[in-house]
Design a protein that fits this description.
about 160 residues; alpha/beta; Alpha/beta knot; 5 helices; 5 strands; about 20% strand; globular
C-alpha cells in the first residue's frame, strides 16, 4: 500500500525537517517489508488569498488534485478521533490487508481543511485538543507511521 502525506506549508531546513526525514526513512525501510511504500511527501504552498474562506478553498483544490479516487483519505484535524498508537497501527494494517492501493494523510494549513475534504475522509485523526504547528504535526504523523510499522512487525520500539 502506498502511503502519501499531503501538507500545506513547506518545511524549511532545520531540526523539524531533519526529524521528519528521519522518521520518513525509518518507515520506508521497515514499511517495505510489511507491504507499504513511501511515505511520499507532497508539500503545497500556503494560499496567499486575503480571506480565510478563499485560502481554504484554494488549498482544498490543490489537495484534491493529488487524491486518487479510490484512495483512503485521512485528515489530521483537531476535531478528529484521538487514537492510541496501537489503534492507529490497526487502521493502517487493516487498509493494507484489504488491498487498499493508497492511504493519503492530509495536513491542512493555518485556517484548517475545507468541510468537503473533512467529509470525504475515511478517518480524521487528532493529536489532542491543542493546536499544533503544521511542522510538528508532520513530524508527529511520520513518527506514528513508523511506530505503526514497528507495532505491525513486532519490533520492540513501541513499549505499551
Amino acid at each position: 500500500m502506498r502511503v502519501v502525506v499531503i501538507a500545506i506549508g513547506r518545511l524549511k531546513q532545520g531540526p523539524e525537517r531533519e526529524l521528519a526525514e528521519r522518521y520518513r526513512e525509518r518507515f520506508d525501510d521497515l514499511g517495505r517489508k510489511l507491504g507499504f511504500r513511501g511515505p511520499e511527501i507532497h508539500e503545497i504552498g500556503e494560499s496567499r488569498a486575503r480571506d480565510a474562506p478563499t485560502r481554504i478553498a484554494e488549498e482544498a483544490a490543490a489537495i484534491a488534485a493529488l487524491i486518487p479516487d479510490k484512495a483512503v483519505l485521512v485528515t489530521l484535524d483537531e476535531r478528529g478521533d484521538s487514537l492510541d498508537s496501537a489503534g492507529f497501527a490497526r487502521k493502517l494494517g487493516g487498509w493494507r490487508d484489504q488491498s487498499t492501493a493508497q492511504a493519503i494523510f492530509v495536513i491542512g494549513g493555518a485556517d484548517g481543511l475545507s468541510p468537503e475534504l473533512r467529509r470525504k475522509a475515511k478517518l480524521s485523526v487528532s493529536f489532542g485538543a491543542a493546536t499544533w504547528p503544521h511542522q510538528m504535526v508532520r513530524v508527529m504523523l511520520l513518527e506514528q507511521l513508523y511506530r505503526a510499522a514497528t507495532i505491525l512487525s513486532g519490533h520492540p520500539y513501541h513499549r505499551a
